[in-house]
Amino acid sequence: MDEIVSLAWRWWLVLWPHVLATSILAINIAASAHAILVKRDTRSTIGWVGLIWLSPVFGAIAYAVLGVNRIRSRAGQLRAGQLAVTHELQAAVPSRQRLDAAIGPDHAPLRSLATLVGEVTGRPLVDGNQIEPLIGGDEAYPRMLAAIDAATRSIGMASYIFDNDPTGKLFAAALARAANRGVEVRVLVDGIGSRYTWPSIIGVLTEQGVRVDRFLPTSVPIYFPYANLRNHRKILVVDGAIGFTGGLNIRDGCWLSHQPRHPVRDMHFELRGPVVTQLLEVFAEDWAFAADEVLVGDGATPEANAVWSPSLSVAGGMLARGIRYGPDDPDIGRIKLVLVGALAAAQKSVRIMTPYFLPDDAVCQALDVAAMRGVTVDIVLPDENNLALVSWASTALLWQVLGRGCNVWMSPPPFDHTKLMVVDGAWALFGSGNWDDRSMRLNFEFNVETYDRALAESLDRQITAVIAQSRRKTLAEVDGRSLPIRLRDGIARLFSPYL
Question: Do residues 438 and 356 make contact, with C-beta atoms less than 8 angstroms apart?
Answer without folding.
Answer: yes
